[in-house]
Write a structure and sequence with these properties.
The chain has 426 residues and is of the alpha/beta class. It is 28% helix and 25% strand. Strands 4, 14, 15, 16, 17, 18, 19, 20 and 21 form a 9-stranded mixed sheet that branches. Strands 5-6-7-8-9-11-12-13 form an 8-stranded parallel beta barrel, surrounded by 4 helices. A 3-stranded antiparallel sheet has the order 1-2-3. This is Diaminopimelate decarboxylase.
């Protein structure tokens, strides 16, 4: 059975986050709920800055990993930039204190509305993913008589050892521009007074624990920079994305210091600005999901632990077959365990968190359990499927805790369906 790690630990038989007892938090809240450690978040940022900024590499947080406003405010206060993939994320980033000059707008399907809003906000870099997007952005910049800075997102066709649903830098992925097309586009827009192509960007995937794909991808980018220079195009920015893997209990991780050293070596002859966009690696281990057991259902051939948390609260197992380590709030006694299928209450067979998972054979209805490492790609994927409320979030700081997102109840959701309005179609 996986044991919790700092800042989540057992003390006097009870699971704590920092100095807060999880059971005490659950008595103040309706389960399930997310709970974050401010100390771990700030420590992750410190280690990240020590690794990258000490080597002159800029950090932009990939906020698609977790866009809760309180989390964003803490990151903005630490001086990080931010990487956005939607207009909604830009609104949140602005509300959290990020400014346009610290923003990068990524995303394969940016709308006219999103591009216009980003131009007006003064976003510092547009990571453009197609010739078609480049043409549209140029037209919009001309209409507003402004100049925008562009990095062409390149698809380097690099294979990575990760889940097939989170690869983004191979042939056949929807992301990026073929390397063979980059020189053509830079020449086509050379001298344009409203658009300057000064960067190249890549993002090869997520949850990558091996440095070799990065070595290959960055090497390809450096070769492309040299090729473009020979054709009279100066590249002054290299945006190398993120995807640095964390340890979900599998024993492998790509730590900041290791990947920063690789990037530093591979870009040592590049004279411009190097950027990385960590997301999961900054926030994943800051959060847990607290849930209560509804039933321990004994059936043939297996026993089910049915939780009050469902796949609408924690989508990653259903979407990526991800496994989040699970621990009980009461410290397990030394003794026998049994294997359970851990499932939720949603009316879907895919609402299964993990099968054959060893936990105490004394589990009972009402017991509290905790999924670890839920700070990334969990809260942001919440839905109200089965007409369930969107669950609250708590931030812990030492012995203090505060609710940073209230639950979004069905009453609140149904309010958007009241006062039906007729649409005039003529």
């Amino acid at each position: 059975m996986t044991q919790p790690t700092d800042p989540v630990f057992y003390h006097q038989g009870e699971l704590h986050m920092e100095s807060c007892q999880i059971r005490a938090l659950a008595e103040k809240m309706t389960t399930p709920f997310f709970c974050y450690s401010e100390a771990r978040l700030l420590d992750n940022v410190r280690r990240c800055k020590d690794a990258f900024e000490s080597r002159g590499i800029r950090i932009h947080y990939a906020m698609k990993a977790n866009s809760t406003l309180h989390v964003l405010r803490l990151l903005a206060e630490q001086g990080l930039g931010v990487d956005l993939v939607s207009g909604g994320e830009m609104q949140r980033a602005l509300a959290a204190g990020f400014v346009g000059q610290h923003m990068i707008l990524s995303g394969v399907g940016k709308t006219i509305t999103e591009l216009n809003a980003a131009i007006e906000t003064g976003v510092s870099q547009f990571n453009v993913e197609s010739a078609e997007e480049l043409a549209l952005l140029t037209e919009l910049a001309e209409q507003k008589n402004v100049q925008v800075s562009v990095a062409l997102r390149v698809n380097p066709d690099v294979k990575v050892n990760t889940h097939k649903n989170i690869t983004t830098g191979q042939k056949g992925n929807k992301f990026g521009i073929d390397m063979e097309q980059v020189a053509e586009l830079t020449q086509l827009y050379a001298g344009n007074s409203h658009l300057i192509i000064e960067g190249l960007a890549i993002h090869i995937g997520s949850q990558i624990c091996d440095t070799e794909p990065y070595r290959i991808a960055v090497g390809k980018m450096m070769n492309l920079v040299e090729q473009l220079e020979q054709e009279g195009v100066e590249i002054t920015r290299l945006d190398l994305g993120g995807g640095f893997g964390i340890d979900y209990g599998q024993g492998t991780v790509l730590d900041f210091e290791t990947i920063a050293e690789v990037i530093s070596i591979e870009t040592q002859y590049f004279k411009g600005t190097v950027i990385v966009e960590p997301g999961r690696s900054l926030v994943a281990d800051t959060g847990v999901l607290v849930s209560r057991i509804n039933y321990v259902k004994k059936a043939d051939p297996r026993t089910f632990v049915i939780l009050d948390a469902g796949m609408n609260d924690l989508m990653r197992p259903a979407l990526y077959q991800a496994v989040h380590p699970l621990v009980t709030v009461a410290e397990p006694k030394v003794g026998s365990t049994q294997e359970y299928d851990i499932v939720g209450p949603i009316c879907e067979s895919t609402d299964t968190f993990v099968r054959d998972y060893p936990l105490s054979d004394e589990l009972r209805t009402g017991d509290l359990v905790v999924f670890l490492y839920t700070g990334a790609y969990c809260s942001v994927m919440n839905s109200s499927y089965n007409s369930r409320s969107i669950i609250p979030e708590i931030m812990v700081n030492g012995s203090k805790a505060k609710m940073i997102r209230r639950p979004i109840t069905q009453e609140k959701l149904m309010a958007f369906e009241q006062n039906v309005q007729e649409l005039c179609l003529v």
